[in-house]
Amino acid sequence: MLELTAQQVRMQQRAADKPTALELLCRALEADGLVEPGYLAGLQAREAQGSTYLGQGIAIPHGTPQTRDLVVRTGVRLLHFPEGVDWGDGQIVYLAIAIAARSDEHLNLLQLLTRALGEGDTGAQLRGAQTADQLLAALSGGAGTLALDSSLVGLQQSAEDLDELLLLAARRLKAAGCAESGFLAALQQGEALYLGNAIWWLSGGDKVSRPGLAFVTAQRELQHAGQPLRGLFCLAEHGDAARPVLDRLCSLLVEGRGAELANSTSPRAVLEALGGELPVDWPSLRVPLANPHGLHARPSQVLMSMARDFSGELRVRVADSDAAPVSIRSLSKLLSLGARRGQILEFFAEPEIAEVALPALREAVEQGLGEEVMPLPADAMPATVVAAAPEEPPQALASGEWLAAIAAAPGIASGPAHLQVTRRFSYAPRGESSEREALRLNEAKAAIADELDTLVQRSQSKAVRDIFVTHQALLDDPELAAEVSERLVHGDSAEAAWDSVIEQAAKRQEALGDALLAERAADLRDLGRRVLARLCGVALATEPEQPYILVMEEVGPSDVARLDPQRVAGILTVRGGATSHSAIIARALGIPALVGAGEGLLQLQPGSTLLLDGERGQFMLAPSAETLEHALHQRDQQQRRREIAEARRHEPAHTRDGHAVEVCANLGDSAGAATAVALGAEGVGLLRSEFVFLDSPCAPDLVAQEAEYRRVLDALDGRPLVVRTLDVGGDKPLPYWPIPHEANPYLGVRGIRLTLQRPQIFETQLRALLRAADGRPLRIMFPMVGLVEEWRQARDLALALRAEYDCADLQLGIMVEVPSAALLAPVLAREVDFFSIGTNDLTQYALAIDRGHPSLSGQADGLHPAVLQLIDMTVRAAHAHGKWVGICGELAADAQALPVLLGLGVDELSVSARSIPLVKQGVRELDQARARELAQAALGLASAGEVRALVSKALGEDR
Ligand code: PEP
Ligand code: MG
């Protein structure tokens, strides 16, 4: 990424003409080791092809593809020519920016420069600059013009209070390039101003990259500070760029038209009222850009020159982006698009010239805008396809053979395959007439609305019903409807308009970087597919009446949550891993599940019989009657074992030779504690306290938290509670706790690192826990500890607070999830009261495999000998100091892992509440002495597969 800094600038240079200036520039690049001798020929050749003058006294000389090999490293050097250099055609350059780049990195430089190239007289400022800083300040532009276009208006949003509206507005400003990370946090310090008519105003000048105004409204009237709240204006303030819009807004309010804004359902009407940039209402055309280095200066100049041939206005944008289209007469605006090869350009032409101009533009872009272009791969062409299916059809699955997949939730299941996979939909991109297309779309939507009504009425669980109610709201969303109508008016077919609006909206959701809001993207796509299928006349497979095996490409937690365990006998997915959160939910629902079965699943005929074994990690297509009978017999045996396990669930778990293991529950909410006890839990081994924070729109206060923790302790009735303090960051973002973007959040500020940065939130949580304890057994552990100092800092805070409360039975420990914690266990064991090993994260960090990775996570197996070594080290160190060790990752519920973990000497297993009876039963069927031998043998093996084979054999002999 190219950046401009004062060190790159050479002030007060002089050159009699352009060739001399080029020599000086090249010398500067060479002197700083950016290019090798000979690059000058490239600069000269490039100027001969076309001037690199950009406007406002700025030129950007750079080499040609032939001289790219002479670039040693990417960089720029800026030469200031206060007396000016004639760059040809009477264009005078005061600042030349020489670029050394091997690829198209200079596109990003062009984007940086667009503000300087826009309004104002940057040329004069550059000329008069006395210092490098002044020069750079001139380049970064003054106030600029206020951004206010359709991407910054969000009407009828789902929001519950001012904070949520503010979050939505700030995100729009960020997406529009007006605000940077930290903008929201700075704004939250300010007080919102009431403007009347349920409209509020909040502005901030911190972390603003360019001025912009966002306007968001809520679906229903809310309250804030005793006043009604419906709409919020949020200004990213920079200079006085907003003044004209503010004047207009004041007039509107004085004229009593505020309510119009607050209740509007049309972004266009809002923009019209405020004088913002209106979405154009003109014929349009989409064409892919094939230029190797995107829409850089030369092809942009060709486009600009085409504009001169037409008397009307022509605009362009990168298709499906939120950005407003820009005029093709402005080089700076064209460059600001930053369009790259493979992206689709969407041109808009005034109706009078559209018929001639649009085909001419298509031809020019297709021919490369003056450059030689290689054709794009077929899938980059304007798509009539929703989702890419694999290029080569994967091999069909063999029938009657056991096929391997990743065991995600135990149990044997069989039934007809019900495929819920992304379908291809073919449709014409252009429609007959906007009226006809609107009619077709409305018919399709009405049919889906009926289906949704039925689904809502049929849903027995509230969670499932809520999902379909959300779909109803999305189907009726006025903002989506307005965007679709706009496309229909431009001539899109109903399918194309609906499809692209839904996809764009889904992408916007995903880009919010907020797990909860991003889940809405899946809902949008789900609904989008239903309507699209209806429009295309494609029947989506109907749900079989009898219990079926659900086959999906990948399963998200919300997909699983909406399943009806009475109808879904089992789940089989193409991708996914055993420790993904969806697998955790499948286990909690008691649905046998296999994940990561591979692309071959996509070839399955709907309705074909599947047999799956969620414990052994295998499945079979079209099993013979004999195999099916055998498997079902096994299932019955397992059922009987489960019945015995359930009958004995309240008994302690002792091995045959009398070794006791404590079996506790993992909980993700306070409501589940009573059920866990009813299922035989001897305590809670992991309370994922994030739920208290995730269920709340802002950080929960002391009282709210204390009530949640008390609820769990009350239900446990004297049994111990192990609470993990807040573990957010990485894969668990909190909407109201924005974390600056990190290249690799899994290795970034998360878990204890994050809470230590927010001592106030941390302290409130600790106080709430200590207050709730009331002398009952409370164990507090800190997540993601990787350094001894982190543990000590957290411990010291907890101990300092402890003195204030009655907490006689308190233990403090850490989760062992980071390999360094296991390796430092001999040091830590002296200080902690206990360790709880989080094998989900420990495995991902030890093996360097993302636990949710679509194709690799299957290899993230906690029975890998490398992970077992870390567990062994931890247990030995803990026992040497008389401390206990628990396992709270998913491995604790894995039947094959049980003998190994017991053999390594772990003292406690914490599993999902449903698994407790079977885990206890599993312990009862084992022999500690034999388990120890098995574990020792496992430590010496080479792979998880070898360990599993060893255990299978041993269990086969024992049971
Ligand atoms: C773990 O990492 O094993 C663990 C229990 O924590 P979580 O799954 O919540 O990250
Ligand atoms: Mg973890």
UniProtKB/TrEMBL annotation:
PROSITE patterns: PEP_ENZYMES_2 (PS00742), PEP_ENZYMES_PHOS_SITE (PS00370), PTS_EIIA_TYPE_2 (PS51094), PTS_EIIA_TYPE_2_HIS (PS00372), PTS_HPR_DOM (PS51350). The keyword Translocase does not apply. Residues 2-142 form the PTS EIIA type-2 domain. It catalyses: L-histidyl-[protein] + phosphoenolpyruvate = N(pros)-phospho-L-histidyl-[protein] + pyruvate. Its EC number is 2.7.3.9. One of its GO terms (biological process) is phosphoenolpyruvate-dependent sugar phosphotransferase system. Its cofactor is Mg(2+). It comes from the Bacteria. This is phosphoenolpyruvate--protein phosphotransferase. It comes from Pseudomonas knackmussii (strain DSM 6978 / CCUG 54928 / LMG 23759 / B13). The lineage of its organism: Bacteria, Pseudomonadati, Pseudomonadota, Gammaproteobacteria, Pseudomonadales.
